[in-house]
Amino acid sequence: HIRSALHLEGRAVLLMVSRLAIWKRVERGLLCVRELQQRGDVGDITLVVIGGGPERVALESYAKDLGISSSVLFLGEIAHSALGAYYRMADVFMSLYDRTNLGNPLLEAMYFACPIVTLADGSTDHLLRDQDNAFLVALQDVESDLPAKVATLLHDPLLRLSFARNVKTSFREKVLSWEQRVG
Questions:
Q1: Cα–Cα dist 48/29, whole Å
Q2: pLDDT tens across 1-60, in order?
Q3: Residue pair 114/92 in contact by the 8 Å Cβ criterion
Q4: CA distances (Å), 15 to each of 50, 73, 161, 174, 183, in order?
Q5: Bridge pairing between strands 135-137 and 72-76
Q6: Considering the entire predicted model, what is its pTM?
C-alpha cells in the first residue's frame, strides 16, 4: 500500500534511512540515481529518503541541480513503528556513510530482508558478505561501482531474493536480540 500511496507502482525503489547530516552522504545516493537515469537501463527509478536533519534543504536543492528531483522523495521523519513497510517495499537499501555503516537503519534493512548495497568500510564485515547477502562497494570505487551494483540488483530479481534470504539468515544468526544485548 505504500507504493500505491506514494505513486511508485512500476518503479524501482531505492531506500535510504538516516538523519540528514553531512557525514551520512545521502548525496552519494542522489548521484547514483542520476547515473542510473543517464544509463537508461533500469527503467523508472525513485530514491526514497527517510529522515530529517540540517542537510535536507541542501539535498533537495542538489537533487534539483542534478535534474532528478522528480525521482527523489524526501519523506522526512517517519514513526519508527511504520518503517517496516518502507523497508519491505524497497528494492534496494543503501547506506553510504563516511563513518561506520553499521547502524540501526542497516540492521533494520537486514531484519526486513531488504537487499543491501553499502560501503566496504569494515564496520559490517561480521554481518555482510560481498555478493552473498549484500554488495559492498569500496570507497574509492563508489562513483562507478555503486550504480553498477544497484543496476545489477534491479535487473536480477532472483539475486535480490537471494540477498534478501541470506541477509535475513545472517541477521537471525549474528545479531543479538534486545534481551541478549541488555541481559
A1: 10
A2: 899 999 999 999 999 999 999 999 999 999 999 999 999 989 899 999 999 999 999 999
A3: yes
A4: 8, 10, 17, 23, 33
A5: unpaired
A6: 0.95
* Nearest C-alpha neighbor of 19 from the set 105, 87, 86: 105
CA dihedral 130, 136, 139, 145 (to 10 degrees): 100
Task: Give the model confidence (pLDDT) of 51-101 as tens digits.
Answer: 999 999 999 999 999 999 999 999 999 999 999 999 999 999 999 999 899
pLDDT at 181: 64
Q: Please give the C-alpha separations between residue 39 and each of 45, 61, 70, in angstroms, as whole numbers.
A: 12, 22, 17
**126-130 contact pairs (CB < 8 A, 24+):** 126/174, 127/102, 127/170, 127/171, 127/174, 127/175, 128/167, 128/170, 129/166, 129/170
